[in-house]
Please model this.
Amino acid sequence: MTTTDQRLAELHSQVPEISPTEAARRMASGALMLDVREADELAAGSPRGALHVPRSFLELRIEEKAPDRDQALLLLCEVGIRSLFAAASLQQLGYREVYSVAGGYSAWKAAGLPCASPPSRLDPEDRRRYARQILLPEIGEAGQQKLGSARLLLIGAGGLGSPAALYLAAAGVGTLGIVDDDSVELGNLHRQVLHSQERLGIKKTESARHALYGLNPSVRVVSHETRLTSSNVESIFQGYDLVVDGSDNFPTRYLASDACLKLGLPHVYGAVERYSGQIGVFWPAAPDGRGPCYRCLFPEPPPPELAPSCAEAGVLGVVPGIIGVAQATEALKLILGIGRPLIGRLLLYDALGGSWRELAITPDPACRYCREGADFPGYIDYEAYCRGT
Ligand SMILES: [Zn+2]
Model:
């Protein structure tokens, strides 16, 4: 049993838990519900009548919100874990009647109890900019705000990263990190449409920032002008919610895959060659069921002598365009929680045949990286295969 498990067991015995239905009943008879989630978690709404006090400010603000130590308090978070910690903390401050709402806001919503939409944080210009997107009932203003709070990391501002970055910025994804250490070359421009003739020779992260701000100045573009290595991958990935992988080489792709697995982030994978491309989402930590990781499909990179030579392999410029936009689509679906993500499904695109095929991929029970109870084997810097495509 880990220390966290022990602490949770203690909290479960120390803090009384009640169901959302019971919480709603007690609110009706005067109990005060405190929603302790952080501000960026409220985009999907909050129980009607709940007071929002972020967990990080709870101890500082509780006396102002509930001066009476006998006031019945119902603590609620997203799934009912942080509310246990919060409730225990209030018990220590002398509050005598504190409950944690089991299952949190997820259970509240699932029980069909009344919810209130958060006050809109979209300004009039945002409403005009995203009007056609907000009109979609699955998105609405709440979804648009979710996009605005999202932090997405894009690996590579090249063939896949270019279309992905343009559409993600246009859609209003709030923070776009970009990892790339290359400069813009003439031979990039037939497919890397984020860049331009006039920005030849400058760093791709800089060129990307210029193009994306030109398209949507409210997006925050964070440049990571470096190449991913085993020593920097984790510190770069931390702080992002998902990773769109537009890398063009095996060493980077395996690092990205391994770091996503270790940090529990969705890995939106894409690859192209000649007239074909593929795309899938690897996310063993997905909340609604275990999906495979990239290594379940490709346990190790091929030996360098068998890997395709990137410098010599051609590619029709539109193919990374199509796959990159499909990656952006998967990223938007994951952020918004809509549709059926490509988890456990690999789509193969054949431009000449004009066809898509779908392959089902199941988690490999023997996968060294994602199998049940596996210890993370560590990062590997594979020998560089090829650069700069
Ligand atoms: Zn795996």
User: Anything to note?
Assistant: DSSP finds 14 helices and 15 strands in the chain. The first strand starts at residue 17 and ends at 18. Residues 150-360 form a domain with the Rossmann fold fold (CATH 3.40.50.720). Residues 80 and 102 are 5 Å apart (CA to CA).
